[in-house]
Amino acid sequence: MRLFSPEAYAKSIVASVQEYALLCAHAIGDLFSKPRYINDMFTQMDSIGVGSLPIVVLTGFFTGCVLALQSATSLKEFGAVNMTGRLVALSMVKELGPVLTGLMVSGRNASGMASELGSMKVSEQIDAMRALGTDPIRKLVTPRIVATVVMLFFLTIISDSCGTAGGGVVAVGMLHLNGHTFFTTAYLTLKMGDVVEGLVKPLFSGFIIATIGCYYGLKTTGGTRGVGKSTTQAVVASSVLIILMDFLVTQLMIGIFGR
Amino acid sequence: MTEIMIDEQAAERIAKGVPVVEFDHVCLGFEEHQVLKDISFKVAHGETRIILGPSGGGKSVLMKLANGLLLPDTGDVRILGWSLQQMTQRELFQMRAHVGMVFQESALFDSLNVEDNVAYRLEEEHVDPAEIHTRVVEALHFVELEKAIDKFPSELSGGMRRRVSIARAIISKPDLILYDSPTGGLDPITSNTIIELVVKQRDVSGTTSLLITHRLQDAFTMATHRYNEQLGHMEKIPNGGVDPNTRFLVLNDGQVVFDGATLELAHTSDPWLKDYIS
Fold first, then answer.
1. pLDDT, tens digit, for every residue of A191-248?
2. In this complex, is the C-beta atom of B168 within 8 Å of any C-beta atom belonging to chain A?
């Protein structure tokens, strides 16, 4: 059995971080010079944004439903059941909407990007692209980053809305609360800081999903088995980074807005 | 260096007789394994250089070096006089407009149909769509595959994929074509069709090329045959003649063991070479 070398492992991690950072820098730099693949950006927006719409709507809606059910049970003990709308709106907009949308889109698209680019890598299509005079980062990575960042922003807004609506449906239909009270408290409780926090997170999540998916795709080796491995790694890495980013941005926003 | 400058300089350098490909003491290794050891050779304009050697000898790596897909650890690779190591990534992409490449497994874009695959480079250069279509049909006519224009790579046989790959490489009329095992994994009849296309491209367009092959039979067919445009097929050069522009480079274990003409290779006294070509 070959002995495991901690030094080689540490070096490989540092090298991976360096490769990832260079990929990100290259992809962002390509935004500011020609040629720009605008058509590819729109194609990716359609694939990532419109394609993810059903899972985002369903996840957001049912998360709101569960949140209303759970919180109403606890709030009833304190005689504060009318605060259900406030709790649902705050949780959805600040935390659950951005994070769950990020995780769902990551599961669907980071894996898709890793497998698509990975298949292209192992079948020499990436080399063929370079041989034909096209920069694969400019053509494949930059449009995916732009598309994911833009679309995740709007998907998060949709998820927040569906979640609040789902909470409202449960509150009115199952808990027999007043709908007007639910939505009024939900609306009044949201401050600028909450909305900003909820809308800054998807920008980071989108960047993480696209860059991690493309990074693992482009470093794929080892045939179809390698493609499978890259896909799994992309989903795991992007999910963990989204949660980590959520923690850091939350901390930052509390520091800025004080709530 | 702008794209226009590269285009102008290419024509100028070819006219001056600058070698199209020049490897100067090139070494390349991956981790602890030295793949290429002190490789030096030149390929003149209009020449076809056939690269032979056992598997794992560094032939495909050499081909990727010639297109700047890899860069050497030491030494210098010059294409049309440009030293690839001194070019920026952007300049390398522009330089590749002068180089066509046929990959071992064709490497066609599987989400694009044959027309879009062949047209890829022209579309990247924003050529007029009507002109693109005309040139795609012309390139597909050259490889006798016009009927497959709307098909996707998954619907094509291995030989047809290889022919589309050749059409994609020649559509921009490059100054250099790199063929990485164009007959690899094909049956003898299909291999002959591919070799005939390579000979046709050599004799009709006079394009400089590097060709890797594992089949000695293909290599000697190329050296001893020519394309007859009137009859529309390949024929043997009369009186046991050989094509003067077709030369050989044999690699073994990352080193050049032979660099010369067909007859020199056929009459070599080197025991390893004799054994290899027998």
1. 999 999 999 999 999 999 999 999 999 999 988 999 999 999 999 999 999 999 999 9
2. yes
Residues of B in contact with A130 (CB under 8 A): 69, 93, 96
Q: Report the C-alpha gap between A101 and A35 in whole angstroms.
A: 32
B87: left (phi over 0), alpha (psi -120 to 50) or beta: beta
The 10 Å CB-count burial string (b at 16+, else e) for A44-59 is: bbebbbebbeebbbeb
Instruction: Report DSSP letters for B60-74, one per residue.
Output: HHHHHHHTTSS--SE
Element (H, E) at B42: strand B33-43
Question: What sign has the CA pseudo-torsion B34, B40, B44, B47?
Answer: negative
Geometric angle at alpha carbon A21, from B74 and B34, rounded to 5°? 25
Q: Tell me: the pLDDT tens digits for B107-146?
A: 999 999 999 999 999 998 889 999 999 999 999 998 889 8
CB-defined contacts A:B, below 8 A: 50
Q: How many CA atoms lie within 13 A of A41 on its CB side?
A: 14
Tell me if residue B202 falls in helix, strand or coil. Answer: helix
Which is more confident, B276 or A119? Answer: A119
**Residue A17 neighbours by CB under 8 Å, 6+ apart:** none
If you ran DSSP here, which 8-state letter would residue B149 be given? Answer: T
* Residue B147 CB neighbour total at 10 angstroms: 9
Under 8 Å between Cβ of A206 and A157: no
Q: Under a CB-based contact definition with an 8 Å cutoff, are residues A183 and A190 in contact? A: no
Segment (H or E) for B76: strand B74-79
Q: Is some CB atom of chain A closer than 8 A to the CB atom of B89?
A: yes
Q: Which residues lie across from A149 on neighbouring strands?
A: none
Distance from chain centroid for Cα B261: 18
Element (H, E) at B177: strand B176-180
Q: Do A133 and B124 make contact, defined as CB atoms within 8 angstroms? A: yes
Nearest CA to A163 out of A69, A50, A52, A241 is that of A69
Question: For A71-107, what is each residue's pLDDT tens digit?
Answer: 998 888 888 888 899 999 999 999 999 999 999 999 9
Could you tell me which chain A residue has the CA closest to the CA of B119? A132
Q: For residue B160, which phi and psi values (nearest 5 degrees)? A: -65, -40
What is the distance in angstroms between the Cα of B15 and the nearest Cα belonging to chain A?
Answer: 24
Number of other CB atoms surrounding residue A138 within 10 Å: 23
